Amino acid sequence: MNNSKFIEEIAASVRKYASSFGICVYSPIIAQSILESASGTSELATNANNFFGLKWRANRCPSADGYYIKVGSEQNPDGTYISSSMKWFKFPDLDAGVRGYFEFINVSNYAALKGVTDPETYLKNIKAAGYATSLKYVENLMNVIKKYDLTRFDDSEGVKMAKVFLSAGHGGKDPGAVALGLKEKDINLQALLACKNELEARGVKVVCSRTTDEDDPLREEVKEANSSGCDLAVSFHANAGGGDGFEAFCNLKNPDAVRLAKLAEKHVKELGQNSRGVKGGMRLGFIKNTTMPAVLFESFFVDNDVDNNIADTIEEQRAFGKAYAKAILDYLGIAQGNAGAAGSDEKKEVEEIPEPASKKPYTVKITASALNIRAGAGINHNTVGCFTDDPKMIAKNPKYYIPKGTFTIVEIVGDWGKLKSGIGWINLKYTERV
User: Fold this and answer.
1) Residue 379's closest CA among 327, 340, 334, 429?
2) Which CATH number fits domain 163-332: 3.40.630.40, 3.40.50.410, 3.40.50.720, 3.30.70.920?
3) pLDDT digits (tens, 9 = 90+) for 123-173
4) Quick one: which of 77, 200, 281, 368 could link to 287 by a disulfide (CB 3.0–4.6 Å)?
5) Distance CA 371, CA 427 (A)
6) Per-residue model confidence as pLDDT tens digits over 272-300
7) DSSP code at position 52
8) Can you give the pTM of this predicted structure?
């Protein structure tokens, strides 16, 4: 492969994947591949399709198919070099090798690369993050960019980044639905904040109707959304009326809105919540009056003491926000990877070891009026039953609804306890020891 063809093939793959990882400039990455791999002719490029000198890190690059061992050199601050045998990522082909580069930098250590449109700034940031030890790394790569006119591959205004409008329904003097100690406005805000954090960590621009407890009339929300230039709009709500489960409302004639709604339904089900389906929402002002694909989510029923058990803590409410973020990222085609994952940068390769489970049995009594029983330790597991003090629910379905009482816990994982009967696990925050 001659040099020109190598540049064209690398550039095509870089343009293919960059925006999915929040990267807005192409030329410095193409230059890195030219310099690091001698335009695809180095030992590492030829034998491992590794064009960026990516050192092997466990679980860092899903596109890799193993590692390759060869001697490598690093430059010390005093200008001297040290060489040793090292492990390097090995990829099945050129395209995977380029995607592997973006997977490699998709960690918190390289967060400063996201959104950068200036080639030199990108290179300074990646060197400062510890990617390379060469003292003249930035200077050498800028020379490569100029030599091959690589900025011709950059868009004049950078990569168009995804932009999402998020609305937390109600707020301020309007609490929304209120029942059993829960206020809808607070629940919606927690979901929004968690969703916002997840999206921004992956390079998505976010515009919010509110980020604090303040008045937020629907008319103003719609006005803000329509003037924001966002690609889609999402509104977070909680339901009331005694029902049970998640609902999504959208314009059923808009295939993009329907697709987002169904993706959200999928990820909410992974939390253990059941779904009442994707429904038409043209009677809702947020759906009817916004000018982009829009979806309104009703996470659960605040006035159902069984249904609200899945989100009656801030942690659980934020879990819904993260589920919605996963749906939005899927919709936008943005890789989720492990952006922002603590301890996953080059300088700190620590394998996380789960906290050992405690297995000393003890007895508890349930303090909540209703408490879900789950198949495993966490809200991501399906609900298999429910302890309750409601005789009507017990009479209606005695196999699912179980009278409250005292129960023996035989194993603990985090805040979750395994019931001696083997039926499942319960959240111990809603119990007390006997």
Assistant:
1) 429
2) 3.40.630.40
3) 999 999 989 878 899 999 999 999 999 999 986 544 556 799 999 999 999
4) 281
5) 8
6) 999 999 999 999 999 999 999 999 999 99
7) S
8) 0.53
Minimal CA–CA distance to 295: which of 268, 334, 333, 335?
A: 268
Q: How far apart are CA 96 and CA 354, in angstroms?
A: 31
Query: From 3.40.50.150, 2.30.30.90, 1.10.238.10, 2.30.30.40, which CATH number describes the 362-433 domain?
Result: 2.30.30.40
Amino acid at 290: T
216 with 209: CB under 8 angstroms? yes
Comparing 19-23, 31-35, 80-84, 286-290, the range with the smallest average pLDDT is 80-84
Report which of 331, 364, 6 is spatially closest to residue 150, judged by C-alpha positions: 6
**3-153: CATH number:** 1.10.530.10
Question: What b/e readout covers 331-350, taking b as 16+ CB neighbours within 10 angstroms?
Answer: bbebbebbbeeeebbbeeee
Note the residue count of the chain: 434
Question: Which three-class secondary structure string do you get for 233-295?
Answer: EEEEEEECCCCCCEEEEECCCCHHHHHHHHHHHHHHHCCCCCEEEEEECCCCHHHHHCCCCEE
d(CA 255, CA 107): 33
Per domain, the residue ranges of the chain are 3-153, 163-332, 362-433
